[in-house]
């Protein structure tokens, strides 16, 4: 399963990837808005939006890409390690 994480904290990127690896998921993490976010997202199975730490422009771009590739979108206000573990626990179970 491939996961794209939009938002979160810069210092947590390695931890987000490690958590995804524990759930046997490939992960891409975008904490900042790159120039071509839509092209870099690809076609994941799941997009996780940490809504507390992300711009409206990034959310709009992520949701458009999710609709294009039929990916599930999960919005979470908290960008903590426990929040990501709970999301992946529910999805991968």
Question: What are the key terms here?
Answer:
93 residues; alpha/beta; 4 strands
Question: How is this structure best described in words?
Answer:
The structure is a single chain. The protein is an alpha/beta fold and 93 residues long. The chain contains 4 helices and 4 strands; from the N terminus they run E-H-E-H-E-H-E-H. It has a 4-stranded parallel beta sheet, sandwiched between helices. Helix 1 links the parallel strand 1 and strand 2. Helix 1 packs parallel to helix 4 (81-92). The longest helix has 14 residues, at 56-69. The chain is globular and about 30 Å long. 29% of the residues are buried. The model has no long low-confidence stretch (mean pLDDT 93).
List the helices and strands and how they pair.
Blueprint (H helix, E strand, L loop, with lengths): L1 E5 L6 H10 L3 E5 L6 H5 L4 E5 L5 H14 L2 E5 L4 H12 L1
Parallel strand pairs: 1-2, 1-3, 3-4
Helix pairs in contact: 1-4
β-sheet strand percentage: 15-25%
Main pleated-sheet profile:
4 strands, parallel
Structural class: alpha/beta
Strand tally: 4
Record the strand order, biggest sheet: 2-1-3-4
* Topology as a string of helices (H) and strands (E): EHEHEHEH
Q: What low-confidence regions span 5 or more consecutive residues with pLDDT below 50?
A: none
Write down the Rg. 12 Å
Helix share, percent: 40-55%
- What is the distance, rounded to the nearest whole angstrom, between the alpha carbons of the first and last residues? 12 Å
Instruction: Calculate the mean pLDDT score and round it.
Output: 93
**What overall geometry do the principal axes of the alpha carbons give?**
globular
Please work out how many helical segments DSSP would assign. 4
């Amino acid at each position: 399963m491939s996961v794209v994480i939009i938002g979160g904290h810069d210092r947590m990127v390695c931890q987000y990837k490690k958590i995804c690896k524990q759930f046997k998921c490939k992960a891409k993490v975008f904490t900042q808005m790159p120039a071509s976010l839509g092209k870099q997202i690809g076609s994941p199975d799941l997009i996780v939006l940490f809504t507390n730490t992300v711009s409206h422009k990034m959310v709009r771009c992520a949701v458009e890409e999710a609709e294009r590739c039929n990916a599930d979108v999960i919005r979470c206000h908290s960008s903590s390690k426990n929040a990501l573990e709970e999301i992946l626990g529910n999805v991968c179970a």
